[in-house]
Amino acid sequence: MSEFTHLDQQGNPAMVDVGGKQATRRTARARAIVHLPPEVWQQLEGDELRTKKGPVFQTAILAGIMGAKKTGELIPLCHPLGLDDCKVHIGTGKEGEVIVECTASLTAKTGVEMEALTGATIAALTIYDMCKAFSHDIVIREVKLMEKTGGKRDFRRREE
To answer: What are the domain boundaries of the chain?
Structure first.
């Protein structure tokens, strides 16, 4: 059975020491799904939602990138990382569904899963914030890691 990596010998929280690890290329892609009620969904024009606050998806992309870059400041035991790249893509799925994906990458001694997850989550929260004037019945769900490469083992979730 695996042990928690963020605990010291006495069971106290501790940052993982990555000093002895080799730097490798690491990537991670995370997804969040935002369900919009009809009164918000009908505001969609092409590939963008526009509100008095501005273009929702464009703003959410910027927020997601900013969130990914600040992950080490937001999650106590995450290493602060200088990302080599971070991209947020926002598209629509079936009616009422907005799909947010964040991909982060770097060459380092630790992975970027938390940065990708944070980026997708912050982008989803930004969509909620900018659209709540239309309805508070917006649901953010299924924030999950889709894939990661580099480090001890790769991971890829089956697409549903």
So the answer is: 44-149
Whether residue 2 has pLDDT greater than 70 = no
Q: b vs e for 39-67, b when ≥16 Cβ sit within 10 Å of the residue's Cβ?
A: ebbeebeeeebebeeeebbebbbebbbbb
**Of 108, 132, 124, 123, which Cα lies nearest the Cα of 51?**
132
- Among the residues of 1-154, which ranges form H helices? 38-41, 56-69, 71-74, 113-131
Would you name the residues annotated as active-site residues? Answer: 129
Q: What is the pLDDT of residues 64-89, one digit of tens each?
A: 999 999 999 999 999 999 999 999 99
- Say whether pTM exceeds 0.85: yes
Query: Residue 1 has what pLDDT?
Result: 42
44-149 homologous superfamily = Molybdopterin cofactor biosynthesis C (MoaC) domain (3.30.70.640)
